């Protein structure tokens, strides 16, 4: 049996409306890496926490553009965490978190195990770096309005 996701990644009172689900027709259908993504509406600056124990394998913090413009597609800031558990369901989320890759989902799962990408983050709100070990519930960043953010 696969492990159950127990920690919601956004910290605060909420509610956090799911604005686009897996296979969403706005942006989640065009690329295999975003097909299973979930988007949640939250204020910029909302604390984001890790949903698993894991190792940070990628941090991207160079982007500042945001809004509804095709030029902003895939121009987000992100943190990728490789789960230390070996029995996760492939679960992807975005805005502010997603499991996302330019490789097909099955290839990423085989190469890296299960990874979680946290996307649309504030560049100056990241609190982790590559190779850091994180624990489930640890604050890793704050949400931003970066990338294609309708």
Descriptive labels:
4-stranded antiparallel beta sheet; mainly beta; single chain; globular
Q: Would you write up a description of this structure?
A:
This protein is mainly beta and 150 residues long. It has a single domain (18-148), classed as Glucose Permease (Domain IIA), CATH 2.70.70. Helices cover 5% and strands 24% of the residues. The chain contains one helix and ten strands. The protein has one helix at residues 105-112; strands at 18-20, 39-40, 47-49, 54-60, 66-67, 78-83, 115-119, 133-134, 139-142, 147-148. A four-stranded antiparallel sheet has the order 7-6-4-8, with helices on one face. A two-stranded antiparallel ribbon has the order 1-2. Strands 3-9 form a two-stranded antiparallel sheet. The protein is globular and about 35 Å long. The chain starts with 17 loop residues before the first strand and ends with a strand. The model is unreliable at 87-111 (pLDDT under 50).
């Amino acid at each position: 049996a696969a492990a159950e996701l127990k920690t919601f990644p956004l910290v605060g009172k909420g509610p956090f409306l799911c604005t686009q689900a897996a296979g969403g027709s706005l942006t989640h259908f065009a690329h295999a890496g975003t097909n299973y993504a979930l988007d949640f509406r939250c204020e910029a600056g909302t604390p984001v926490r890790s949903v698993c124990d894991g190792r940070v394998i990628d941090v991207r913090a160079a982007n500042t553009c945001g809004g509804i413009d095709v030029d902003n597609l895939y121009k987000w800031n992100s943190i990728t965490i490789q789960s230390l558990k070996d029995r996760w369901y492939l679960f992807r989320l975005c805005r502010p978190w997603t499991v996302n890759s330019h490789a097909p989902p099955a290839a990423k799962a085989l190469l890296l195990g299960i990874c979680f990408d946290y996307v649309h983050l504030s560049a100056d709100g990241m609190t982790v770096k590559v190779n850091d070990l994180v624990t489930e519930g640890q604050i890793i960043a704050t949400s931003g309005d970066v990338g294609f953010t309708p």
